[in-house]
């Protein structure tokens, strides 16, 4: 399947999902006719609250869960018709850790490669371990690693057979801020190695900081797919903060302008406006301030974060 890039050139999707649905045995429908194309070399964040269907989607693509309806193609090959070929091009870092704690790092990663029937390649395994800053720990048993290192071993295992597409299912769940940022750097490095990365997350900041595109999934439906930057521009609201030369006790009556509020300590005015509107009304606001004799010491604008957009879209949890 192809799609148009912003420059207008057709580009092949590395992963193409078409009308994918899943109803579990108990009758619960976890995915409802999902369509999604993933572009080569991108970092795509699948963002959604608990139970939205993210893991089910990954499970189907990786052959762990059977779809009820729909079609998935990896590099143009149907996953059902060509399972071995398509699965070999995908690496999966699952949410839960599944490693024997007495195995050494290097052996755990080499073993994973063997599961794909690929011949041993110590040079490649070394490169993977170096990329993930695990080379020094290659002979350490899993049980002696920190939590962050264990997560990186999970990534190394998923990369052991040199896949083109890497799924990271909540790579930073329960991880502190520092480790999370370390993980972002790892993901960026993998992209530079040419991998296409799809990660699931509940963390809005993660999608905003890392992803080229964001897909929002809610109750089994993709409700939005957009380039992160465009999404910000399209849906973002801005806030203008006006630092006052003299604090105000209350907002003067002649300044009853929609979207204008006085900061709690009275030293600033906050003006919320829609960047999509033809005229955000800033000129009028400044004229009204002037007329009311209110002087402004400084101005700054703030872009709303994807978090607010997400809360708007999905209303928090499903
Ligand atoms: N084996 C199963 N049998 C029945 N229902 C299931 C099964 N696996 C998942 N579900 C249900 O399908 C829905 C989607 O689950 P899924 O794990 O795909 O969501 P998720 O978006 O990955 O959630 P989280 O962010 O919490 O991991 C949930 O309501 C879940 O309870």
Automatic annotation (TrEMBL):
GO molecular function, one term: ATP binding
Domain ABC transporter: 15-244
A Pfam family recorded for this sequence: ABC_tran
PROSITE patterns registered for this protein in UniProt: ABC_TRANSPORTER_1 (PS00211), ABC_TRANSPORTER_2 (PS50893)
SUPFAM superfamilies recorded: P-loop containing nucleoside triphosphate hydrolases
CDD domains the UniProt entry points to: ABC_DR_subfamily_A
Keywords: ATP-binding, Nucleotide-binding, Transport
Descriptive protein name: ABC transporter related protein
Organism: Maricaulis maris (strain MCS10)
């Amino acid at each position: 399947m192809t799609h148009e890039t912003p420059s207008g050139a057709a580009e092949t999707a590395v992963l193409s999902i078409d009308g994918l649905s899943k109803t579990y045995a108990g009758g619960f429908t976890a995915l409802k006719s999902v369509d999604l194309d993933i572009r080569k070399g991108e970092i795509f964040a699948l963002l959604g609250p608990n139970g939205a269907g993210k893991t089910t989607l990954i499970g189907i693509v990786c052959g762990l869960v059977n779809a009820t309806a729909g079609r998935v193609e990896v590099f143009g090959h149907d996953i059902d018709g060509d399972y071995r070929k398509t699965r070999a091009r995908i690496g999966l870092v699952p949410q839960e850790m599944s490693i024997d704690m007495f195995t050494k790092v290097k052996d755990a990663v080499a073993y994973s490669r063997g599961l794909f029937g690929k011949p041993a390649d110590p040079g490649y395994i070394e490169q993977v371990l170096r990329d993930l800053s695990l080379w020094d720990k290659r002979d350490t048993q899993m049980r002696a690693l920190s939590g962050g290192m264990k997560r990186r071993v999970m990534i190394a295992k998923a990369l052991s057979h040199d896949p083109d597409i890497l799924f990271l299912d909540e790579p930073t769940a329960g991880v502190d801020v520092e480790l999370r940022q370390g993980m972002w750097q790892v993901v960026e490095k993998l992209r530079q190695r040419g991998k296409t990365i799809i990660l699931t997350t509940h963390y809005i900041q993660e999608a905003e900081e890392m992803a080229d595109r964001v897909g929002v999934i809610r109750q089994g439906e993709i409700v939005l797919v957009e380039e992160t930057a465009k999404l910000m521009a399209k849906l973002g609201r801005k806030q203008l903060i006006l630092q006052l030369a003299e604090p105000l006790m209350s907002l003067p009556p002649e300044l009853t302008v929609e979207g204008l509020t006085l900061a709690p300590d009275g030293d600033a005015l906050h003006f919320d406006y829609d960047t999509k509107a033809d005229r955000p009304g800033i000129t009028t606001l400044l004229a009204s301030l002037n007329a009311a004799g209110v002087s402004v010491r400084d101005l700054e604008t703030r872009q709303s974060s994807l978090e607010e957009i997400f809360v708007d879209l999905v209303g928090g949890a499903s």
